[in-house]
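step 3/5: co-fold with FE2/S2 (inorganic) cluster
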Amino acid sequence: MSSPTPSTASPAELRHWHEVAHAPTAGTVLGQRDVLQDGSATMLTWPVPEGDGAAPSTETAVFRYLLLRSGSDVKAYVNRCAHFGVPLAARQELLKFQPHVRLTCNVHYAHYRWSDGLCTAGDCEGESLLAIPLTIDTDGTIRIAP
Ligand code: FES
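step 4/5: write tokens
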């Protein structure tokens, strides 16, 4: 029996960021640390939207991720709730988070720990956001680690 394709896999069947549909390859630049405020959680997509820079709709075929900055450290997670596999929020201004502490899904309010993406309360307690391994260049460029 073949394994499910990324587009049909349920949230519980996905264990790694690279199994998610439209995931970029290792080495891809995800952002610049210095443009992220300390304590910020930023919703981004890859590839970067063209044109007016407006965020793509939730139906658009892109890879959605979150960058979380704490001091010189940056964490990246796939923006995909472990409960229903949807983004934690439809738009940046709707994203709920407590800086350096946690993210909260906007749908059923699952809480995810900032430091490792573990769901600590909610319908998917014990599961996790899919972490994306990073390297940060000396100039602050954030890349997916090999
Ligand atoms: S979809 Fe996120 S908590 Fe239900």
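step 5/5: annotate
Residues 81, 83-84, 86, 105, 107-108, 110, 122-123 surround FE2/S2 (inorganic) cluster (CB under 6 Å).
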